[in-house]
Amino acid sequence: MIPLKDNIPTNSFPVLTVLIIAINTGVFIYELTLSPDELEIFVHQYGLLPTDILQLNILNLFTHMFIHGGIGHILGNMLFLWIFGNNVEDALGKVRFLALYFGSGLAAAFLQSFVAIFEGSLDIPMVGASGAISGILAAYMKLYPYAKVLTFIPPFFFFFFVLPAWFFIGYWFLIQVLYAMFVPTELGGVAWYAHIGGFVAGWILINKLYKKNLKLVHYSAIRY
Transmembrane region positions (predicted)? Predict the structure, then answer.
């Protein structure tokens, strides 16, 4: 399922959401200028290997979140970040939003690395903002469970569906869990456990970071 738009207005311009998207886009454009050999060196230098966790390589814990493995990878991540991140940033404010984003990303990195170490996959670098964005999705689901998400489901061409956020994000999370359980890491090349770790971290962190009472926000009007 591909989200196209939600119906939650924002009270301020999402500066950090836009900045994170811009940095990711800039890094990806730089990746496109590299030869295959140069790109491999770049990914291994700034991506996250499980050994980086063991060696407490702090730099790579953050740099890997700004590297992506292809056009579909970055487009999907940035689309999700834009649609759901702007509202979460609006609700939390700048500092707490960054704490949620990077806190979720770090939790994702640790869980995925732990699984990789357990499986013996020590030479595969992890890249992408998916773990951090998973935390944003969890926060959005908790803040706005009844928000309406205009959704495109690829098999149903030319048809669009309006789904409640709790269903859209809940279904997305279920898929991550199922793939993590039944698809070997070496197949598909997707860090499913990073998605799970980031989501769980975001679900926990939003309770600590959101200072107001968590009330279920229900916007009945749908404006697209």
Answer: 12-30, 65-85, 97-118, 124-144, 156-175, 187-206
DSSP state of 124: -
Q: What is the total count of domains within the chain?
A: 1
What token pair was written down for 25?
């886009």
Which residue in this structure is represented by tokens 């999705």? 137
List, for residues 43-57, the tens digit of each pLDDT value. 999 999 988 888 888
DSSP 18-84: HHHHHHHHHHHHHHHTS-HHHHHHHHHHHSB-HHHHHTT-HHHHHHGGG--SSHHHHHHHHHHHHHH
User: 3-state DSSP call for residue 6?
Assistant: strand
CB atoms within 10 A of CB 160: 13
The pTM (predicted TM-score) of the whole model is: 0.89
Dist. CA 137–CA 182, nearest whole Å: 23
What one-character DSSP code corresponds to residue 126? B
Residue-wise pLDDT for 11-40, tens only, equals 999 999 999 999 999 999 999 999 999 999
Q: Kindly tell me if the per-residue pLDDT of 188 is higher than 60.
A: no
User: Given this model, what pLDDT does residue 158 score?
Assistant: 72
d(CA 14, CA 77): 16
Is 218 a member of any domain? no
Assess if residue 113 is contained within a domain.
yes
| Domain hosting residue 15, numbered range | 2-209
Report helix, strand or coil for 151.
strand
> Which pair of structure tokens corresponds to residue 20?
């994170």
Distances (CA, A) of 120 to 48, 116, 194: 15, 6, 17
Q: What is the CATH number of the domain that holds 68?
A: 1.20.1540.10
